Amino acid sequence: MGAGEVARPVVDPADLKPGEAITGSGRISAARMHESEGPSLPFTPVQLAAMDDALTLASRTTGLDFSVYLGELGGKESRVKAEQLHAATPRPAHAVLVAVSPGERVVEVVTGEEAHRRLADRGAKLAVMSMIASFKEGDLSGGIVGGLRMLADQAGRPRP
Q: Between 86 and which of 9, 44, 97, 119 could a Cys-Cys bridge form, CB atoms 3.0 to 4.6 Å apart?
């Protein structure tokens, strides 16, 4: 070996793993499969359980059918889309739909005829304002849970 030369280990091509090759300079080049983690979910299992509990409790205590939609609502036509989703529920007259589109920064509360008798617009607006405050703090699930509780409190128990 001459002055200034660096000894390079000799690699036997039989020792290479699949996807590896010896380059002209003697280095090993390796190709690896990229394994994505899959889509990340917006909620943890604990957050999902809290929302499920809030939905169940709101429906049981009020006798109304509460549901939450999380997704795109179509921008300027958000109210129309929310009303379509509400109309598709099993008992629209007794339904309360909370539609949230974080990407569009829109929250819509749609009530059926019977639900509207028990849930005043003012109460729904207060719940929406509370949800928005939580959303601004980055707490999407907490905002939804709090909003559902407020709506259920405003609607009260079913009348005999």
A: 97
Compute φ and ψ for 108, nearest 5 degrees. -125, 135
Give residue-wise pLDDT tens across range 86-118. 999 999 999 999 999 999 999 999 999 999 999
CA dihedral 152, 105, 137, 65 (to 10 degrees): 20
Residue 42 has phi, psi (to 5 degrees) of -70, -20
60: left (phi over 0), alpha (psi -120 to 50) or beta: alpha
Question: What percent of the chain clears pLDDT 70, i.e. is strictly above it?
Answer: 92
Q: Which has the closest alpha carbon to 119: 69, 156, 79, 82?
A: 156
- The three-state secondary structure class of 70 is strand
Cβ–Cβ under 8 Å, residues 89 and 115: no
Return the structure tokens found at 147. Answer: 């909003």
pTM to 2 decimals? 0.74
Mean pLDDT of the chain: 89
